[in-house]
Amino acid sequence: MSWERRALGHILTRVAETESRAAPRWPLYADPASGSWTTTARGSWAGGFWAGLLWLRVIVHGDEGASAAARSAALAPWLDADTAARGLIFWYGTSLARDRPESEALRERAAQACLDAFDPTLGMVPWGTAFGGPRELARVDALPGLVPLLGLAGPPGDAAAGAQLRLQLDLTDDAAVPAWARRPDGTWRPHPEPPSGWSRTIGWLALACADAAHTGQVLPPGELRQILARPCVAARFAPGSPAVPPASAVRRGGPPDTSAAAIEAVAALKLAALAEGRAASALRDRAAGVLAELVGSHLRDGRLLDGCYDLVHGVATRHELVWGDFFLAAGLAMLIGAIGPFAC
């Protein structure tokens, strides 16, 4: 058995064990020593990743899917939440539910809800108030999931996705500031949370750009190449770049963030599928190398350790994170051909 299949099997075994203990609560992050999960009642912004992991288990191991279907259905209350994180919740919580009419219907309802929330004056679906803080925030973690989800709403959805992506790209210069707040005069200022130097900024941005370029309706190939050439983006996908970024690029001596590395690996596999020749090979090799490093140095008993949830507030700074597990598992599944690069 290949290392990819073996590692994926360990992760999905851990998923099944956790589901049997945690349901109906939702795993969020787990203690690195004990493996005990901190859970939430409704899944928070990361609930879609748990449903996605259960759907991956259905695909890889042929489970009948009752648990996965129940988890996707349980996301429905988030349809009315005021947050752009509905992209993360509903895209990743339903996209792997192959040939499941209930999940497909939920995904379509979510796409329309996100389109209805699009504010043409702002040029985006606002971050919203569901998790506190200012409503009119442009955050890079609003993009992944939201871009392909909006695409399900037809041409108006593509236009909304394109506007949101371009706004974030215009704001996110080479300093890679992940969040911006709208001033009363219509201009934007950097917002302190997430802070500048945040580990997941490039991964989320690259993931959304790859999904936007997949159909060519939202982002033409030429624009994608320009984005990938930005120094802050190119540095993370260069062959010699460290596999795992620090949780903060501006705070010395901090922990790593393996979840950011897993996100970047999946983004690289998506970008490789869009590229040609040597560029495609280099991106795929980069993704495989990052995934091998994560498995070899940070995976223990199916748990991807050394993920950093929130460095600023000292929350789960060296932990197993549900989205880290998801993107590692998804990347491994892509490597072995169990799913395509744009399956989720």
UniProtKB/TrEMBL annotation:
The chain crosses the membrane at residues 321-343. The keyword Acyltransferase does not apply. It comes from the Bacteria. Keywords: Membrane, Transmembrane, Transmembrane helix. GO terms for biological process: carbohydrate metabolic process. InterPro entries: 6-hairpin_glycosidase_sf (IPR008928), 6hp_glycosidase-like_sf (IPR012341). Gene3D superfamilies: 1.50.10.10. This is Sugar ABC transporter permease.
